[in-house]
Amino acid sequence: AGGENNFVEKSYSFIGGGSNNQTDKIYSVIGGGSYNRILKDYGGILSGCYAITNFYGQQAHASGRFAATGDAQRSDYVLRGNVLTTNYYRLYLDGASALIDLSQTGAYSTWQCKLKVTGLRKLTGSIDHFVSEHNFMIYRENSTPVIADLTEIHTHQVVGSSVATGVDITTNSLAIDIATTENNWQFVAHLETVETFSGSLV
Fold first, then answer.
1. Is 153 helix (H, G, I), strand (E, B) or coil?
2. What is the dihedral of CA 9, 15, 20, 24, to 10 degrees?
3. Distance of CA 139 to CAs 53, 64, 158, 186, 192, Å?
4. Contact of 7 with 24, CB cutoff 8 Å
5. Which of 53, 55, 54, 61 is nearest to 32 (CA)?
6. Which of 98, 30, 108, 77 is nearest to 193 (CA)?
7. Helix count (H) and strand count (E) of the chain?
8. What is the rounded average pLDDT for all residues in the chain?
9. pLDDT tier at 103 (50, 70, 90 boundaries)?
10. Pick from 48, 63, 51: which is nearest to 23 by CA?
């Protein structure tokens, strides 16, 4: 680790400079800045100060905080899925099981979210395709997360195909599900968020 008072706790991780940064997980990078923290594998923080990654593959940036690390930041997530479960494909951060567990932040929080999904279905000699874009918000009051104001910006799919993007809360985690009964799809999602939280009220 470069800089001053930086700590790399696991193998295959790197801190380029700055001060008082820490990565506790493998395959993660903090470019610089100060008081940034990575808590899950494959996390990334370019620079800034008081950003935190709580989830697999999360990229985060902050330029300060109110009271706690990560309470004034934006994040990027990439999710994917290609396993049909009866009538939907669930998208995961690691492609298998990792979700965004909203209980990892303070009891009171607000997230502004932009979700883009792209999909490809492999057929004999051709493909089907799907894209969608939605805006929504997540808020937590007294530790219970709620999705609100889900708004479709754009959806396009092949005529005759039946695919739809949905978001929900399952056991305090954000679930991005692509509803269809068609097999051989692979879906990728990009989720952009602006996040703020608090552990208590006045």
1. strand
2. -30
3. 19, 21, 34, 29, 15
4. no
5. 61
6. 77
7. 0, 18
8. 95
9. confident
10. 51
